[in-house]
Predict the structure of 50S ribosomal protein L7.
Amino acid sequence: MAKHVPIRMCVACRKRRPKGELLRILLMPEGFRLDPTGKLPGRGAYVCPDNPECWTEKKLRRFAGARARALSEALVTLLGGTDGQNTHLPAG
Ligand SMILES: [Zn+2]
């Protein structure tokens, strides 16, 4: 019996994957916030947590525009950085 699995699309590479395999990005009026738990209320977008290509500013620009750089840095910090402390993005 197939269980229903929600499918979401990565905003960087546009690949469709089960929601649980993707990292949620919460869309806030003042910017983005990474939501590794996937449980924060609000509108979300998704990105591959296992593909550094999807964390690059260039790939994120279509989705995040001027904030792509801050989002990229936050993703690298959370997923690929040495200290995972900064999951809050500076506004603007
Ligand atoms: Zn991706």
